[in-house]
Amino acid sequence: MIAAGKRTVRLLGAYGPLLVACYLAGMLLHHVLIQFAGFVGAWVAELGVVLLPLAVLARLVALVAMLVILRDGLSNVGALPEPGKRPIRRFTDALLAGILPFVAFYAARGYLADDVTSYFHRRLEVRADIVFTSTVDGGDSTEPPSPEVLGVSFITIAIIVVAYCLRWLWGRYQDRLPGGFALAAVYLETLWIYLSVTVVSRQLESLAAWVDSRQAMVWLSDLRASLTGWLAPLGATWDTVVLVIGEAAKVTIAPLAWLAIVGVIYGRSVQFATPQITVPTRAAHLERRFKLLPAQVQSRLGDLWRDFASRFTPIWKAVLHMRTAGPAFIGAYVLAFTAVLFLEGALRVGIFRALGPHDINSFWLLADSMILLAIPLIIEPIRMALVASSYDELIGISAKAGSSDGDSTASESSRASSGTT
What does the CA dihedral 210, 212, 215, 217 come to, rounded to 10 degrees? Predict the structure, then answer.
């Protein structure tokens, strides 16, 4: 991590302005696309929902652009040969690989909910203007469209199915299609994953609310109170364990998620061997049953399964590389990532202290967005440089581990052959 820290400083010195420009462009495009989707959604709700994932795609494009810029300054990742395709095709492949982990992380951090809230605020503003204008002109104002279009509805499921099928067809016939269709595939992939994550999030929220309202949860709460009420140290220990687990999860999930996202985007060129996965007995039994199906059915189902599983394979490889690096390296990386978070909070406090108190109406409502935008413009390039440098060191560790395993295997083979001779 010391080497990764030094490389982070060098990357910021060499590519800092470009990283800031990419992030700023992504943020501005993200804001514009949400406003545009809200405007369109005020007239046609379904079309607004179809346009909303473009805002997430804008953030992902900015992230991939930043990582592409940083690649040339990385010693291990930069030395790896990239797939033999045109630059635009490599860029779209990186986008396709990073959509699933990025959208999942985006939803887990609450950014997706923030986008949906901003979208509905904009849509309601435009809809109110439409109703007011129609009322003044003496026309009939229609009711605003229901926001449940982003929930579990027939329209949402239909959009997900159509987008996934079109994306699958592109993956099957991409060699026969012009290169411009790759951009459409990126959008379709973002659309069905975005809506799927939204639907799953809504269902998990409903499930959590249903579980919390059950009588069994009340009984568990009463049982805990009865067990810890007569023994105060037991209650304090229980609360401490829950607090430590929660804080540890907050500290570790974000840096590991960022490392996995970068690993998915950079890992397309990584060819190091990964540990083999033992197939469970039940899965082997299902595989034997699968082979009894007709050949055409096997072919179609196999294509669908490989297309679906290909989205998770890069994530799994990134996790395996993190495991190869060892707990010491991962712990040092999490500590460095936490230091960046501390710097972010210190910058926010420092800016407020430097500006001093001002009137909320005449100053903060007008200038807060521009002032607070300075913080991510400083922090995000540092974060991306740190994560990219850490992954570069991780790849170096994995390469050394792989070469040492290969040398040990070769030496064992030579000893075996000499013993046989």
Answer: 140
